[in-house]
Amino acid sequence: MTAPRFLQIHTLHSYTAALLNRDDSGLAKRLTYGDTQRTRISSQCLKRHWRMADSDPHALQKLTGYVDSFRSRELVTEKVIAPLSGRYPEDVVKALDLAFQKLVYGKKGNTKKSRQTLLLGQPELAWLATQAEKIAAASSGAKEVEKAVAEWAKDKNFKAMSENAAMPGGLIAALFGRMVTSDPAANIEAPVHVAHAFTVHAAEAEGDYFTAVDDLKRDENDGGADTIQETELTCGLYYGYVVIDLPGLIGNCGGDQELAAGVIHNLVYLIAEVSPGAKLGSTAPYGRAELMLLEAGDRQPRSLATAYRRAISHDLEQAVAQLDHQLALYDATYATGEVRRYLSTVTMPMKSSDSSTLERLSLKDLAAWAASQVRVATDA
After folding, report:
1. How far is CA 247 from CA 239, 251, 253, in A?
2. Residue 243 — φ and ψ, nearest 5°?
3. What angle do CA 318, 319, 321 make, to 5 degrees?
4. pLDDT digits (tens, 9 = 90+) for 139-191
5. Cα–Cα dist 139/241, whole Å
6. Apex CA 193: angle with CA 189 and CA 194, to 5°?
7. Tag placement on the chain: N or C end, fewer CB within 10 Å?
8. C-alpha angle 189/192/196, rounded to 5°?
């Protein structure tokens, strides 16, 4: 096989009596597929939980070479201007605030409400803070600041921030990309593509009527219920799909192949073990992947979601068999030649085609194998 370009990750996760990802009405997100309504977990929800799992043993933040980043409308306020407050005259700081908000967020950047929520890396924020401090130190009043910033900002854009930084937007931007509407040159192409996860079966939902009881209420004629509410609980076996463009990831990591291998190693753990759940205290929505199939190859990726175009029953063994069957059909039709490894809690082994070198592993060995694919991949 030639050096792999793509790593594809297919998963099956089970969650019971949980409300993992809500829509604007507070109900579980849904998706109609194959004329059947399913419950869904958005890709944004999945990515947020993986990147925010900073206390997990395999957190991205624990990787050697990790570069921090922040997503906010208050980047300038908190990371650039706040360190100047109290150290320079108030009118100087205020003038710098106005100028840098426009520089980062565009013409409408002076009000928090109109700003885009941006993701900037620590190197970019440190560079901005240094430049703001230099101007503050050289100015004696607001008008002088305005003039200095106008002159300084003539040729300044996000590209200027990235000079001499291997990962200007931080590791999170290197994985999931970013879009800056005020400066398209600052956009970072995402090498990690995440699909919305959906149940392989029809939606299983239940309205949960519940009350909060006042423990100190003494009126015997009162039932004691102080608050009455209703929410929704769902059960589901979810198919998930992630594609990683390996040369793209290595390129976004500043060409550091070993860092990219570490990212993939930890990301495999996070995908398998981190649950995308809300209502932790009342539903304990924790689950691990019951099937995880990894494929490395150089042909265009393809999801295996069509295995569930026709909804099946909520049955793990049937779901695994259905996925295996779909894989065999693709192999017989396209012969794309991916190399595969998988983990499964189902006793029945996967078969796929003989040429795929399918091998069953533990999560530890699966993550190590995924990292090894990065080490043999070509650079961007």
Report:
1. 26, 6, 10
2. -120, 135
3. 65
4. 988 889 888 888 877 766 666 666 656 788 899 999 999 887 767 777 899 99
5. 54
6. 140
7. N
8. 115
